[in-house]
Amino acid sequence: MTESPEQEPAIPPPPSQRIGALSVRLCRDPRDFAGLRHQWQALQRRCATATPFQSHAWLLSWWLSYGGGGRLRVVLVRRDGELIAAAPLMLVHRPLPLLVPMGGQISDFGDILVDDEQAETAITALERGLHRAARHAVIELREVRPGAAAERLYEAWTGARRRLADSVCLELPAVPVEEILKRLPAGRAQRARAGLGRIDALKIEDCAVPEHEVPAAVDHLLRLRELQWRGSGATAEHPEPRLAEHLARAIRRMVRDGEASLTEFRLDGEVVAASVALHSGYLTGSYLHGVHPGLREKDVDVTTLLLRHEVELAASTGGRVLSLLRGDEPYKNHWRPRAVINQRLLLAPSGLEAALRLRASQAARRESTAGTVGTRFPPVPSFDPALPLVHGATFTAGRLVAGVRKRLRGGAPARVPHPAPPVSAAEVTQPVRDR
Q1: Which residue has the higher pLDDT, 37 or 238?
Q2: CA–CA gap between residue 149 and residue 151 (Å, rounded)
Q3: Is residue 162 a contact partner of residue 346, using CB atoms and an 8 Å limit?
């Protein structure tokens, strides 16, 4: 049986921070986490560096699909009842006890949330709460984007700590596509403009999918991805049901809240491509695509079709950056994006410094022996090689499998357990009082 925050004693704030009714609590009950929706969204809006993968809709949906009973560990900091910091973590036990971000391998960025206007107070209290939560575990924050709120926590940490490089992400400015084309060599830019002319001549329409149609559209997008594999000569794979359920549930709510866009591209009334973009205050992430192979038979430059739509979508939502997310595949580099290196931040109380050094050594050894792997491949035996396929990828399923197997020989990382959730989805999504 899971414990609710009422069963967790409050963590006393530092003496200098007690003014203003500051409190720190550990949330371990998914139903209570579900009830944080409105407070969580407000905090996310006040954290300028938050990415879409820290949204409440994404995290709660992920937990319903992948979370394990009794392992939720969300540290919450409030001042006068207002949520001013949160660390959405979970406990895993392999290869050693670790507190890791919710969201797992299908999330391209991991981070905490901190109210920018109360950052110093919030970080001080959150650091104290995490010390208590991590009495017997190392905190491992994966895929931390440079400038993220977690960097402030790292700098304030009073115990053992270590910073390592993580995945490569590529990004473009959120500007009209013509500005992107000016970055390219003349010959390549000319070919891209010809591709755009071909798209316009065919009158391919892009249509935003409304909230109530999202589940069916996600299902169709995943079927298009299967067709992509068939068209490439690779063996078609079927999406894992949990992932399909998570995407339909999370994207539907994120579309409603303005945190995601699902677009269908139609030719003569038929959906021939679909894409999912995720939004935060400053960043739009190009997350998922499915394309019918028949488009290539019509000489349509699919990457140009999708890129034009997404840079313009990013600009229209107020973002400054279109992130192509993890992976530096050749087709992405055609557009001369900027490379951004995510970070892996390891934190532990001083008494667990030896465990932190061991974990850092494991991570460094595994990375030194790893091959180049696609963007969202969990380095565990049960990965589904169809799901991480992105539009225009030039690699094959065989090469991807070989790369993952090579990574496995370096030792498997902590794997998110998959027992049934402690409560049903219906119970968790019932409205409950904000805690």
Answers
A1: 37
A2: 5
A3: yes
